[in-house]
Amino acid sequence: MKSMIKFSNKLAVEMLRPCPYVRCFHRCLATSISSSSQVQAPLNFLSGKRCDPSENIGNFDLKYPATDETLRQVPSSGERDVNEAVSQAREGFRSWSKLSGFERGNVLKRAANIMRERLEELAQTEVLDTGKPIWEARCDVQGCADTVDYYGGLAARISGEFLPLSNGCFSYTVREPLGVVGGIGAWNYPLQMASWKSSPALACGNTFVFKPSPLTPLTAVMLGEVYKEAGLPDGCYNIIQGETKTGQLLTTHPNIAKMSFTGSVPTGSKIMEACAKDIKHVTLELGGKSPCIIFEDCNLDNAVTGAMLANFLTQGQVCSNGTRVFVHKSIMGPFLAQLVERTKRMKIGDPYLEDTTVGATISKQQFDIVMRYIELAKKEGATVMCGGERVTVDPHLRGYFVSPCILVNCEDHMTVVREEVFGSVMSILTFDSEEEVIRRANDSELGLAGGIFTSNLQRAYRVASALEAGSLYINNYNVYPVGVPFGGYKKSGLGRENGPDTLDYYTQVKSVYVEMGDVEAPF
Ligand code: NAD
What is the DSSP string of 175-227? Predict the structure, then answer.
């Protein structure tokens, strides 16, 4: 997700040696946070402040994944509140879109600094929402602040072109905002989704209404408070909480100009269909089943680390994960030996402890999905080398902890090799030749990402150009420095986030022709 890391290169390499700073977190932290205002306060955000929906169309449970404890119930917003959020965003658009890019950018840059000041609070709350290890959450928040900063810097550079034409005439183009942008997010990188979508949207002069995943409603609201403190006018950033119905109301609202969605392929398809009715713009960041190719001439230590980064961050719940690990037959023995040994050493446990590297699966439902895929893999002929079991790390932590799983004897046709699991399940496949592995790697409906480990630069370039995916990593995996576009080929999505190209997806081009002479016509 996701920076994020979804994190920086250096932090990626440090994955199994989590940050040693701030050792004061422990289990009771979760208890103190769970009773804090972040959890108990209203979770819609309209007119620059938190509020409850005026009409409750149902409740959903907010749970801390590590304990599976229900922290509170959150009311879902219905038509009246979605209408109100969109109407406030329309009102906000009138003045926000008239500011210069420089002025808008200053607000975003101030917001980025406030996020950095509140990094620890944001990270702790992100852990409560997601169950991921605290050091990962810190990397995520740092990356989100960088993204907001980045778009703050780009805002002043959004401009058009001047085209000289014949006889002194000319034309110029202007990049104009679309209007009110709707966002809908998944649960694995909640703050990242709110910030990756809102900051380019706002930089371009749009206003924003976001619906977080019902599993992770907390940090997007905190981002609203950060924006407010940074000087964002009320109504420009709004949050409505809810489940499918709320998402549908937002998507189909006639005054939404664009939807930016992150989530599964089936939901993305429904969103695109709903947007087609009103010819709305759409960005879709969807699922993946990406290849990670380990050639015989790789640096073995780096390749093992890369394969682990490609599979085991955030409990394996990462869209860009390289879950099909293709290993050249000649190095399978040493690669597997090191991989299994290091994977067994990963520390499963309390997400607030500094040395934890595996936190809790987001929900029982997701845990059941992961376990079903592992059972099916075994039935279809795969062998579990390690992991794939529920682990009880502490009697107080009743959440769903799963030991990272490595499957061998996998074949391309197996369900676990073809479908996105969204859990820590790595499928190892072997190959003989470059041509063969490219063909097999591309044999997927999805095309989000991919990794190539080799010390042969020509081969690395060749394979990167042949792979059908939006984000490729040569000799690393799952690094997302700010400014590098992220998005999918094929069914993995449409549009790009995190880069300069993203601005194109939040603007439309107006062309103006200017006549400098008399009007000529044949009549
Ligand atoms: P999901 O599709 O089930 O739900 C995503 C969001 O859509 C939620 O907020 C949900 O409430 C909402 N929603 C569901 N049905 C809707 C509808 N009909 N109309 C409008 N909104 C609706 O996905 P999830 O389980 O939350 O997330 C996991 C998926 O997200 C995985 O497939 C993963 O690969 C993908 N993902 C992709 C990226 C990326 O950047 N490409 C990043 C993270 C996650």
Answer: EEE-SEEEEE--SSSHHHHHHHHHHHHHHTT-EEEEE--TT--SHHHHHHHHH
Q: Give the tens place of pLDDT for each residue, 92-142.
A: 999 999 999 999 999 999 999 999 999 999 999 999 999 999 999 999 999
220 lines ligand 1 (CB under 6 A): no
Distances from the Cα of 357 to the Cα of 19, 201, 203, 351, 403, angstroms: 11, 34, 35, 8, 11
CA of 163 to the centre of ligand 1 (A): 42
Confidence of residue 25 (pLDDT cuts 50, 70, 90): very low
CA–CA dist 218, 222 (Å, integer): 7
Q: In this model, does residue 8 exceed pLDDT 90?
A: no
- Beta-carbon contacts of 289 under 8 Å, excluding residues fewer than 6 positions away, are 323, 324, 417, 418, 419, 420, 444, 446
Q: Which of 129, 251, 253, 267 is the best mutation target for the ligand 1 pocket, counting ligand atoms within 8 Å of the beta carbon and taking the most?
A: 267
The amino acid occupying position 268 is G
Nearest CA to ligand 1 atom 34: 287
**Which DSSP string corresponds to 29-61?**
HHHHHHTSHHHHS--EEETTEEE--SSEEEEEE
Q: How far are the Cα atoms of 68, 69, 161, 163 from residue 514, in angstroms, in the given order?
A: 64, 65, 13, 10
Tens digit of each residue's pLDDT (9 = 90 or more) over 300-354: 999 999 999 999 999 999 999 999 999 999 999 999 999 999 999 999 999 999 9
290 lines ligand 1 (CB under 6 A): no
359-416 pLDDT, tens digit per residue, is: 999 999 999 999 999 999 999 999 999 999 999 989 999 999 999 999 999 999 999 9
Pocket of ligand 1 contains residue 286 by CB under 6 Å: yes
pLDDT of residue 1: 43
Catalytic positions:
285, 319
Bridging pattern class, strands 258-262 and 180-184:
parallel
Mutate to test the pocket of ligand 1, among 1, 3, 61, 264 (most ligand atoms within 8 A of CB): 264
- Asked whether the whole model's pTM tops 0.70, one would answer yes
> Given ligand 1 and candidates 4, 184, 318, 471, which is best to mutate, with the most ligand atoms within 8 Å of its CB?
184
Q: Are 53 and 44 in contact (CB under 8 A)?
A: yes
